[in-house]
Specification:
It is built from eight helices and four strands; from the N terminus they run H-H-H-H-E-H-E-E-E-H-H-H. It is an alpha+beta fold. A four-stranded mixed sheet has the order 2-1-3-4. The structure holds FE2/S2 (inorganic) cluster.
Length: 202
């Protein structure tokens, strides 16, 4: 598969300045290659009239852009302070043992990549695990093991906030700005409670 100039031009047309389209274009590259490749960097640079160095500087700054391929499902366990003390560290250890891989590695069937991730601003649901950037809230080692086992078997899995879990490349296309028409879920009551409390008319 190769990059679609039609898709790239559609993304670029959404912005007043072409270079502002770099972040979604990088997601478009990941939707094709599964990570940021030299060819993808060259494609973004040529579409946006940037240098390869400029594209690389952005692509290497954000952790959502990967420099090596991952499995179909990128499982990121939050191990920042709150999630860690409420069970994030135990979840990582359990998943690592269950999957037979270390953090940063991918299962031999190329389905699951296990990572630690930084705070996802979802501490009200700690401990949190993200699968291809969808939230799995209030997890336990047992609950998230059920999730990864179902994904490896090709079963349909829904995040706790309602979104269907797609593959990393499918999700990358979504992040590039091409909706798949599936429900995206919502943040839920605990997160919205703070917003409600802060309303000036209360
Ligand atoms: S510490 Fe895990 S979401 Fe904030």
């Amino acid at each position: 598969m190769t990059y679609s100039e039609v898709d790239a031009k559609e993304i670029i047309s959404r912005y007043p300045v072409p270079r502002s389209a770099l972040l979604p274009l990088l997601h478009l590259v990941q939707s094709v290659d599964g990570c940021i490749t030299p060819a993808g960097i060259e494609f973004c640079a040529s579409m946006l009239e940037l240098t390869g160095a400029e594209v690389t500087a952005v692509a290497t700054f954000y952790s959502m852009y990967r420099r090596k391929p991952c499995g179909d499902y990128l499982v990121g366990v939050c191990t920042n302070t709150l999630c860690a003390v409420l069970g994030g560290d135990a979840i990582v250890e359990h998943l690592s043992n269950h999957l037979g891989i270390d953090v940063g590695e991918t299962t031999s069937d190329q389905k699951i990549t296990l990572e630690r991730v930084e705070c996802n601003a979802a501490c009200d649901y700690a401990p949190v695990v993200m699968v291809n950037w969808e939230f799995f809230d209030n997890q336990t080692p047992e609950s998230i093991t059920g999730v990864v086992d179902a994904l490896r078997k090709g079963k349909r899995v829904t995040a706790t906030r309602g979104a269907d879990i797609g593959t990393f490349q499918e999700t990358s296309r979504l992040l590039a700005g091409f909706p798949d028409g599936k429900p995206s879920g919502d943040p839920g009551a605990p997160t919205l409670a703070g917003l409600e409390a802060a309303r000036p008319d209360r």
